[in-house]
Amino acid sequence: MQQRPYLLKNGVIYDGTGSSSEQADVLIVGARISQVGKIGDSDVPARPVIIECEGLCVSPGFIDMHSHSDSGLPLYPEAECLIRQGITTSIGGNCGSSAAGIPYDDEAEWKRYLEAGLEKWNGLSEFLNAIDAIQPAVNLGMLVGHGDLRRTVSPETSLPLDCAQRAHLNLLTKEAILQGSFGVSSGLEYVPGRFASQDELIELSKGAARFDGIHSSHIRNEGPNLLESIGEVVRIAEDSKVRFEVSHLKACGPRNWGKVSKALEMLDAARTRGFDISCDFYPYLASSTGLSIVLPDWALENGKTAALGLLSSQKRSQITAQSDERTIEQGGWDKVVITSVSTETDAWMQGMNVSAIAERLHLSPSDAAIEILVRNQMDVGIARHAMSESDLIAVMKYPSSTVITDGSVSVPEKGNLHPRSIGTFPRLLGTYVREMKVLSMEEAIRKSTSLPARKIGISNRGVIKKGYMADLVIFDPLKIKDMSTYEEPWQYPRGIEWVFVNGVPVIKEEIVTGNRPGTALRNQVRTVNGLG
User: Fold this and answer.
1) What is the C-alpha to C-alpha distance for residues 68 and 90, in angstroms, rounded to an integer?
2) Is residue 214 classed exposed, middle or buried when 0-12, 13-18 and 19+ CB atoms within 10 A define those classes?
3) For residue 192, cis peptide bond before it (omega within 30 degrees of 0)
4) Is 210:526 a contact under the CB 8 Å cutoff?
5) CA dist 501 to 3, 30, 305, Å?
6) Among 479, 311, 328, which Cα is nearest to 380's?
7) What is the pTM of this model?
8) Burial, 64: exposed, middle or buried (Cβ in 10 Å; 0-12, 13-18, 19+)?
């Protein structure tokens, strides 16, 4: 049955470009925006659905350019935690790995997908086809993970790549972009990214630059060596000519607060020299990752399974001491909160910081952390409360920064997650625009829509404009607010009235419709002469 047109009347239109808002109408016909402005009855097709938007804001759908939604979206295609915060497009494959790169013979990784009745995919192209078949509620674009590619090139985790292997990495990056990836991601604080040389990352980036792709990177260190890590990625951008994105820029630990301003100055200097390098942020003061991140590099050089063996050997005391040193440098164990464990007997730890858990276990915090990793086979999630709001605001105000979730897709039955997966965009608009007035509404929406679309390379979304795809959000500027907390994350935002994805409502009058009009987005490849 053909979809009826939608006429959004008398809304306050924020078109996504940063221009001043204006009161106008928006006409949706099919999957696209048909008209914007004062629309007369004679211009409207028969039987329209009329939505009175007096006093409400109409903006492009929010584009989350740094997420890990690719892992959960095949399992939970309704994506309620995304659409309820106004996200219409999510970019997955960040921090160096993705669901698209799951090794075909890794039965442990495939278990949950096979149990859900899904068939295996083999590589990015098949993964994007699988997303189309699943028909999620949101659009999904992908980056290809450096870690996934590196494991293909060399199974030896910690060894440097030789010249031929680096060339192979470059080739695989190009192939992924031709299959639809918008670029490449790296996770230089994780395995195997921790062991990548600068030359390797330059060659990786050249592959992306050949087709004007982006390189989005979780940099090597976000604490004591933040500025050295920024220096490294600036050199990578300069030598490869890639468009570079510093993911979730922050400084962890009070000893490092204030370094963000210098980091931004370094990005500015590179931009002045003609290089396209920028950053993004999530509007929270706690990060989210795995507890294994506290371990020293050498303990992880052969992967997590080997690391688990070291934790049960005579090396345990050495690892514990070095983990303690690393963690104190970034704020201390009382700032590390356990969010998930894999054993039921340790479920009581969820929501507690490591220092408090240590008291219960009659251990030192560092010994407790290692014990938790061993008991849970290294599968432990954490939130680390180690960031400064003044640093966050500095990044937020930076003209080329975008807002991200760095979150995932899940459901309440699967346990708690970081509130950013549920409330990021309403938090930006409610807390930092309406209450704190850090940004204007126009600028906040630009950072949530057209700016990420431009960075990623999506040409027909992110702006309210005739002919663009009808990904739209209608929200109440006086009510929009995140409700999710670290203690009780599964509380959905308020103030999101309607959300359209490809012209179809997925939220209607604050109620989930069950429609799933999303699609896999693929890069429209553009060759850049002389690069790669």
Assistant:
1) 9
2) buried
3) yes
4) no
5) 13, 11, 41
6) 311
7) 0.94
8) buried
pLDDT tier at 529, thresholds 50, 70, 90: low
pLDDT value at 530 more than 70 = no
By three-state DSSP, how is residue 43 classified? helix
| Backbone φ and ψ of 43, nearest 5° | -90, -5
Q: Where do the domains of the chain lie?
A: 1-92+406-513, 289-385
The structure tokens listed for 19 are 């221009």
Residue type, 74: P
Helices (H), 184-258: 198-209, 226-240
pLDDT in tens, 34-48: 999 999 989 999 999
Whole-angstrom distance, CA of residue 236 vs CA of residue 259: 21
Closest CA to 371 of 394, 346, 396: 346
Smallest CA-to-CA distance from 456 within 242, 132, 95, 183 is with: 183
Confidence of residue 238 (pLDDT cuts 50, 70, 90): very high
Report yes or no: 380 and 342 within 8 Å, Cβ to Cβ.
yes
Q: Which fold has domain 1-92+406-513?
A: Urease, subunit C; domain 1 (2.30.40)
Hey, which bits of 224-380 come out as E strands? 243-246, 277-281, 286-290, 336-340
Nearest CA to 446 among 500, 398, 506? 398
pLDDT tens column, 175-184: 999 999 999 9
